[in-house]
Amino acid sequence: MRLVTFALVLLLSGTVHAQTLKLLTEEYPPYNFSENGVIKGAAVEQAEMIMKALGTEYSLEILPWARAFSLAESQPWTCLFTTGHDDERDKRFKWVEPLLVDRMVMVRKAGSGVNPATVEEARRFTVGTQREDFSANYLRKNNFPKVDLAADMETTVKKLLSDRIDLMMTSEKTFETMRDQGQPLESALVLDGKLYGFACNLDMPDELIARMQAQLDAMIADGRQDHIFAKYGLRPNH
Questions:
Q1: Under CATH, domain 102-193 is a member of which superfamily?
Q2: Sequence-ordered alpha helix ranges (H) in 55-97
Q3: How much of the chain exceeds pLDDT 90, in percent?
């Protein structure tokens, strides 16, 4: 009986170590996006470097944000990125960060005249974002009465440019990238800064989380993260 039990323990142990880590993300350029069937971006490159350094088997998939968020919260061996870290999400995941440090910004269609000077004034307008996005939490917490939720950022941008919403929320760096690519967008109101990183399922082994964090810390310290940001036309985190 002892031999059978020992063999079962070895089998289960081997199964655990053979787990494939599922990395989920969304279409949110320049951090994570698909191009000609290839998933790329400033956060994706960091994720791939970390996984390569660890020698961990992983898969990478783009999904609508709300679905990816639900899977990361409910399925073991699953991480979601690039995820804003706030109080509401803090205890729901294990965190590896920062893949970036950025501020949120409310963006208007160029020439629209929508010009809130404060958060209080912004509440008068219809603000768009994505389901389960960090900014959706912000809008809910700050009692915005008119919030338009979409499945992805591309849909939110289309709504803004077609005057179906007044403002949209995104990261400042993402806004700057869209503007530099010719999108007729303007910054209307800059908000607080936040950390963004991997939000991993609570059943993820602490040892693996620590190893991921150590690799990210090394990437930041030796300048590789800044080099990736420069490649995508982004300002460094610091």
A1: Periplasmic binding protein-like II (3.40.190.10)
A2: 65-74, 87-90
A3: 81
